[in-house]
Amino acid sequence: MTLAPAALTGIGVVAGDHARAAMLLALMDGRAYAASGLVRVATAALQTANSHLRGLGDAGLVAVQRDASATIAWHRRR
After folding, report:
1. pLDDT score of 74 more than 90
2. pLDDT in tens, 14-56
3. What does the alpha-carbon distance between residue 15 and residue 27 come to, in Å, rounded to a whole number?
4. What is the CATH number of domain 9-75?
5. Fewer beta carbons below 10 Å: N end or C end of the chain?
6. SS3 for 67?
């Protein structure tokens, strides 16, 4: 099995922060969550949770949809 550097990037994004890891673990149950709901899991401010979701989305680990009133995220299965 050969791992490409890009595959390790996502792991580094998650492993680098406890709150991000907690959010990803919550999202892995298959449901979509609002960022405001993930605040409780991450024990972080809403702005911080949104930033973490952006990082997880950039790493390809979650899908994120934003609209005028909410940010919704779900785990992106590979």
Report:
1. no
2. 778 889 999 999 999 989 999 999 999 989 899 999 999 988 8
3. 15
4. 1.10.10.10
5. N
6. coil
